[in-house]
Structure formats: structure tokens, C-alpha cells
Design goal:
Layout: E1 2-3, H1 6-14, E2 20-25, E3 31-36, E4 39-41, E5 44-50, H2 54-61, E6 64-71, E7 77-88, H3 91-106, H4 108-118, E8 123-137
Antiparallel strand pairs: 1-8, 2-3, 2-6, 4-5, 5-8, 6-7, 7-8
Helix pairs in contact: 3-4
Length: 141
């Protein structure tokens, strides 16, 4: 097992269509985890969610968040990101990022369609400021 350099974990987060598993804490202390499509944008992880979803409501109350992105194929690798989320309901911004995110996961040919579907009132743009990263590769080596 080897620690990833910053260049390695950034490349890992940007490669392919791995989802991030977002961990938050509900108001009563129970944990909540949900997969999301995301993009790395400088020192932030960007994704969309509904304002009335568990993660949307939880992040509005408490912006602390943990993300896990992993490669489930041997020899296994993962990146853990700890950060603080900032939320925006600016519709133009939500739709722009929904389209960019959709291009990664669904392809450029469907990006506009999914951006229109996911960039609507009631959706949020979430920007997680990266504060701490733990990243390992070759876990089974």
C-alpha cells in the first residue's frame, strides 16, 4: 500500500465515472451516506443535490462532509476527502454545473439533456472546500 501524491489523488478523482459516497450527520446524530456524481474544480469537489433531500437538508444545517471515492478492482485504491460544503441555489450556476457533471457521467451527447433535467428549481450546487485528504493506492499489494 502506498500513499498517493497530490497529483495522483487529483488524477484519481478526475478519472472515469467513479461516484463519490457523501457522508453527513443528521440532526439527531445518525449518519447518512449517499452516492453522487461529482467534478473536481480546483480545491473543491462540486456536485448537485435536491434542497429537500436528506443530504441537501443536512448540508444546509451543517456543512461538514466526508467523501469517499474508491476503485473496487484489485489492487484497490481510495481517496477520502474531508471538507466544508457551501450551497448555492443560483439556477444558472446549478444548471451549468449539472451539465458539466452530466458530460462526465453520461457523455457529451447527453450532457445538455441531463443538465436540463438536473438544473431546475429546488436543486442545489454544492461546493466542498477540500480541507484534508487521505489517499492510498495498491491496498492489496
Amino acid at each position: 500500500m502506498a500513499h498517493m501524491t497530490e497529483a495522483e489523488w487529483r488524477a484519481f478523482l478526475s478519472a472515469g465515472t467513479r461516484t463519490a459516497k457523501i457522508a453527513t450527520t443528521r440532526a439527531d446524530g445518525r449518519p447518512h451516506v449517499a452516492p453522487v456524481w461529482f467534478l473536481l474544480d480546483g480545491d473543491e469537489i462540486v456536485f448537485n443535490t435536491g434542497a429537500n433531500t436528506v443530504k441537501g437538508r443536512t448540508l444546509a444545517r451543517d456543512g461538514r462532509v466526508m467523501l469517499c471515492v474508491d476503485d473496487e478492482r484489485p489492487p484497490f485504491s481510495y481517496v477520502l476527502v474531508q471538507g466544508t460544503a457551501n450551497l448555492s441555489d443560483d439556477l444558472a450556476e446549478v444548471r451549468t454545473w449539472a451539465t458539466r457533471i452530466a458530460a462526465r457521467y453520461m457523455g457529451e451527447h447527453l450532457a445538455e439533456q441531463y443538465g436540463a433535467r438536473n438544473g431546475v428549481p429546488g436543486e442545489l450546487l454544492v461546493r466542498v472546500k477540500i480541507e484534508k485528504v487521505g489517499a492510498e493506492q495498491g491496498v492489496a499489494d
